[in-house]
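Design a sequence for this backbone.
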């Protein structure tokens, strides 16, 4: 006799009553040894709840996702779904009420009750128990099918391989959405094993490597995607962004121009072209590229930010602020726009404005080292050295290779007459960025101040 299949129930806690009803309706199948049911009420006192959930999920055969607006909005429910997106677990959405599930990852799976009619829709299921019996019948059918296939054939058809690759690819995309980059990398690698000519899988794995700062591996994957599909502008644009991140701006410009040559009506390559030109100090070219991006897509915020940065570097601070204002008007939660406007206010010596903008950027994105450093700079200029040091510490914690944060902290230590610490920070800054002339000057000043203090 086959072992009973393990069923894992994912649900929002607002639907605890529905979960209990489901378990009651599955009781006969459980008594007959066809299934065993697990849900988070099974966690014992003293258990680590997260470990208990994911260990039991990994050991499950079927995931039943009780679907309603609350579960679709639940981070925990969606993490459990992501963990279940593998060939060993059958996912079955159970639709409790009308919601946007057909635009969710769940739309890829056959739902219950019959035809996905919500259980709590009285016009479909009256009494409600008819809906639950439709669910039980569907689950019984799946269990019988899985039991009969408990010893699968060792041969796998090309169609089955393609299906596995498709499911894995979307699982990787979902993990990227949840910021589970390492897991996404593993899944995309599995897709490539199953489907070696899948250009999208190479591209998305390249994006994941780029998010981890592994730019050489990112460019290698983008190159493979281009080899497979040489007419896709997105792949060239992404490879250009990776080259920019590596500091290879001329190569980046070539890539973005290639993307534009293939499709001149996409705004993003022009915006990324502007980033590369700004990094080279070619601010007028950067502004021209931003102008084109904005003409193509007036509500695309990044070109306004990039144009603002270019104006700021040209010393046109008021025009820079206007650009950042426009980006914030379009998207009030654009952290980079606040961060760069704060940086511009620092250049205008409007430090309270800078602190307010950097604080807003940090509120939106607490992992933004640039904003912590800029706020630290503003505090230092106001003589609030301890607050400056605290912000620089946070910037360095986020990015230990961020040279400017060591310089800013060194200035604050000098303000506190802690010259040894200041010199150590300037040394670290220069070791990370030997061309950082301001840090060299600050170190020289710190040596002189220390000598006078002795």
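Sequence:
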């Amino acid at each position: 006799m086959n072992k009973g299949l393990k069923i894992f129930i994912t649900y929002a806690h607002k639907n605890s009553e529905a979960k209990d009803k489901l378990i009651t309706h599955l009781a006969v199948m459980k008594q007959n040894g066809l299934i065993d049911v697990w849900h988070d009420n099974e966690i014992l006192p003293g258990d680590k709840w997260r470990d208990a959930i994911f260990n039991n999920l990994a050991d499950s055969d079927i995931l039943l996702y009780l679907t309603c607006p609350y579960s679709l909005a639940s981070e925990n429910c969606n993490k459990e779904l992501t963990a279940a997106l593998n060939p060993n677990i059958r996912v079955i959405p159970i639709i409790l009420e009308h919601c946007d599930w057909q635009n969710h990852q769940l739309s890829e799976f056959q739902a219950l009750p019959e035809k996905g009619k919500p259980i709590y829709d009285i016009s479909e299921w009256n009494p409600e128990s008819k809906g639950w019996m439709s669910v039980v019948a569907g689950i019984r059918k799946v269990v019988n099918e899985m039991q009969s296939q408990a010893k699968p054939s060792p041969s796998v058809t090309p169609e089955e391989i393609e299906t596995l690759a498709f499911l894995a690819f979307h699982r990787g995309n979902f993990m990227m959405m949840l910021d589970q980059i390492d897991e996404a990398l593993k899944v995309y690698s599995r897709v490539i094993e199953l489907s070696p000519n899948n250009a999208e899988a190479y591209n998305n794995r390249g994006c994941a490597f780029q998010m981890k700062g592994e730019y050489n591996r990112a460019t290698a994957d983008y190159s493979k995607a281009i080899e497979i599909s040489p007419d896709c502008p997105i792949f060239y644009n992404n490879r250009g962004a990776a080259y920019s991140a590596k500091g290879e701006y001329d190569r980046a410009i070539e890539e973005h121009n290639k993307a534009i040559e293939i499709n001149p009506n996409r705004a993003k390559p022009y915006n990324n072209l502007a980033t590369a030109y700004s990094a080279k100090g070619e601010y007028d070219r950067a502004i021209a590229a931003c102008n084109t991006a904005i003409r193509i897509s007036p509500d695309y915020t990044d070109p306004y930010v990039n144009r603002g940065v270019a104006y700021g570097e040209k010393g046109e601070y008021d025009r820079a602020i206007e650009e950042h204002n426009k980006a914030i008007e379009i998207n009030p939660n654009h952290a980079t726009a606040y961060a760069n406007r704060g940086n511009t206010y620092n250049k205008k010596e409007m430090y309270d404005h800078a602190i307010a903008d950097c604080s807003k950027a940090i509120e939106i994105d607490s992992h933004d080292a640039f904003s912590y450093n800029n706020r630290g700079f503003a505090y230092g200029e106001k003589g609030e050295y301890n607050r400056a040091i605290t912000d620089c510490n946070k910037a360095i914690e986020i990015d230990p290779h961020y040279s400017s944060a060591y310089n800013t902290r060194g200035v604050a230590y000098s303000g506190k007459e802690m010259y040894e610490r200041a010199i150590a920070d300037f040394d670290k800054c220069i070791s990370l960025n030997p061309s950082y002339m301001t840090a060299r000057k600050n170190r020289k000043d710190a040596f002189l101040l220390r000598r006078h203090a002795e």
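The first strand starts at residue 5 and ends at 10.
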